[in-house]
Design a protein that fits this description.
InterPro entries: ConA-like_dom_sf (IPR013320), Pentaxin_CS (IPR030476), Pentraxin_domain (IPR051005), PTX_dom (IPR001759). 4% of the residues lie in helices and 42% in strands. It has 215 residues and is mostly beta strands. It has one domain (16-214): Jelly Rolls, CATH 2.60.120.
């Protein structure tokens, strides 16, 4: 699609990524590129387990968005690395923040679990769990949104900020609409493939890399 803007044209370039492959991300900060991930079912969730692998050389006091699910009006489900190095989960409001070891250029396996009934949420890094927190008890993740990797959409599908963009590689993104037991997450962290994810399955989910270029 091309949009004529005064004296130039902004072109949205789309490319498919084969399921199961590492997502190609920008080697530098950008507000013009993102990856959209298409789930097998709507994200209408009273519980979930979200797992992904990522590697980045970004250091210092810089926040980094890893996973964003946004509806037209709300940031429904976001996962961040905060400026102080903590990992965080946001569900349409204030976040749950977790102290974790410094995560660097070697790939790390990160999982989050949450259930509405109790509000219990737990962060796992390379199979090791944090202390659980009580967070957003009684909440529900609403359907009708878009899933974006590596950018924070401040509206439905855009308004990105380069200083929040992810630089590196994201892959192995899987999501279930229930809480996996700890032993299952530990097996996943070692590369064990034991269960098909029923919301997002990295082996089968469709991806599109979108790049906005001025031509």
């Amino acid at each position: 699609m091309k949009l004529i803007l005064s004296m130039f044209v902004a072109a949205v370039l789309l490319s498919d990524v084969e399921a199961g492959h590492v997502v190609p991300t920008s080697p530098s900060e950008t507000a013009n590129s993102f990856v959209e991930l298409f789930p097998a079912k709507e994200l209408s969730l009273n519980a979930f387990t979200l797992c992904l692998r990522f590697a980045t050389e970004l250091k210092g006091k810089r926040e980094v968005i890893l996973f964003a699910y946004r509806t037209r009006d709300f940031d429904e489900l976001n996962v961040w690395r905060e400026k102080d190095g903590r990992l965080s989960l946001y569900l349409s409001g204030p976040g749950a923040l977790f102290e974790v070891p410094e995560l660097g250029p070697l790939a790390n396996h990160v999982c989050l679990t949450w259930e509405s009934l109790t509000g219990r949420t737990t962060m796992y890094v390379n199979g090791r769990s944090s202390a659980s927190q009580i967070f957003q008890r009684g909440h529900r993740v609403r359907p009708g949104g878009k899933i974006i990797l590596g950018q924070d959409p401040d509206n439905f599908l855009g308004d990105f900020q380069a200083e929040q963009s992810f630089v590196g590689e994201i892959f192995g993104v899987n999501m279930w609409d229930y809480v996996l037991p700890s032993v299952a997450i530990q097996l996943l962290s070692t590369g064990e493939d034991f269960s098909d994810a029923n919301v997002l399955d990295w082996a089968t989910s469709s991806l599109k890399v979108r790049r906005m270029e001025i031509i």
